[in-house]
Amino acid sequence: MKGLVNTPRDIARELARKYSTMTHDELDLLESILVPMKFAKGAMVLNEGEVCKNIYYIDKGLLRQFYYKNDKELTEHLGVENTIVMCIESLFQEEPTHLMVETLESTILYALPKQKLEQVALHNVNIQILYRKILEESLILSQVHADLVRFESAQDRYKKLCKLMPQVVLRAPLVYIASYLQMTPETLSRVRAASLFSDKD
């Protein structure tokens, strides 16, 4: 959490750089709808049964998205700085979510309220593009995760996660990484040990 504190303008610029080119006026518009939010470690950003009304951009920190199945917690997503988190089904159907979002570190988020984002996107092509690209990225990440657990071996799942999300591997608790990769913590420990051993060869 150390380092320079980003302003809403910095976040607007970062979003524009990542998803769409924008004029000063468009950056002003985007900045005007950003809502900064601070959470302590272990705080709930979204609870089961709430309606997700925002797209969240992670400025600092680490989040996990999870749900309960047969009284077990299952991790759906892990997010770090400069990535987006949302409960897409709840966001678009405006229905209570089964997914929960919890901070694993002290976290600073910037919320993009869907209603306001859609209002400004109606009259602005570059903000429409930004909105579309954020949604595309979220859908692609979901597909990548689904394919990972469907088709890859435990070893390959872990190797791909190291490549795609190195900060998550370094910072998230083992139990949540294991759950995200749909393996037991014991299996993940073996896979990590084997991976370290093979890297030394």
UniProtKB/TrEMBL annotation:
InterPro entries: cNMP-bd_dom, cNMP-bd_dom_sf, RmlC-like_jellyroll. Pfam families: cNMP_binding (PF00027). PROSITE patterns: CNMP_BINDING_3. Residues 18-120 form the Cyclic nucleotide-binding domain. This is Cyclic nucleotide-binding protein. The lineage of its organism: Bacteria, Pseudomonadati, Bacteroidota, Bacteroidia, Bacteroidales.
